[in-house]
Here is the input.
Amino acid sequence: MRSTGPLAALAAAAMVFVLAGCTGTPGDDGLTYEDSPLNKYVAAAWGGDLSPEEQEKQSEENQRKVEELVAECMADEGFEYTPNTDNGGMISSADGDWEPEKREWVEKYGYGMVNSPFNERQEEDPGEEYVDPNQDYVETLSETEQTAFYETLYGATPEEDELNEDGSYEYRWEDGGCQGAAQHEVDGDDVWQSDEFSGIRTKMEEFWTTTQESPELADLNAEWAACMADGGEPGFTKQSEATQSIVDEQNALYETAYGDGSEPVDTESPDFVDPSDSPEMKALGEREIELALVDLDCRNKTSYMEESLKIQFALEEKFIAENKAELDAFKAAAEQSK
Here is the structure.
């Protein structure tokens, strides 16, 4: 399992802070997460300052360059390799509307977890079936040669003593075979993970953690929780817990069906039931919509998005003022690395 790195963890924490922050859905006064003062610094590291269309175009171009470099690298190692630029018919967020602040959307999708609009679009237009352009060639190789092919392409599988307790490991492009080398050549050095910016990285990670526990947000969450209790949904202390409760139940259904991954599951068995099609998942989807509607009413009643964004941005401005030199240096290095 490839480690997603500190930046992903930071971004995830930021997204939890406000339900619709990453969607660009505006609050009552027009604020969106895109207006985040701190995001202007972080976005420099991953292209978040581009529009969704620009990001998708850049991603496709980068993938093409990476695959061409991979083919050259594999050829140097004695293997044939056909550049693979097929994304498998994946649907990007730009292909569909994500509007969790609109009642008609919530009535249909809830939080978009069980009943996702992207899954729905995928079912309507599955696209062409993905075909690995290298599969036929790999099948001509012996078992030993196939192992060598994939180790050359992706790097060797980490040894057990290299894994973290949760099974993840710290990814290094140098150990990622031709793919890792090509990706690094196209993307450049990961400025965020460099030792030079470890100090500001730690500060930002701590900032996001403490921000979610700030007194200002606690007061807003308390007001929201009281509204939820009045609406027949007691037990929540902060808004993010409502969404997470659905995620936890959904994960539990998949774990019941597939286990913890330690033992293989015979999905061809007549006794196997795909959790996605189970009565339990259908019931959870109905429960999700029911909960999300009460949540939406309480967010509207408390002006949750507008107020949480105001709190967030005010705290960010204070953080930036206290760490401006380091943030400016990081932003400049990130922009230079592109």
User: Anything to note?
Assistant: The two ends are 26 Å apart (CA to CA). Residues 304-337 form the longest helix (34 residues).
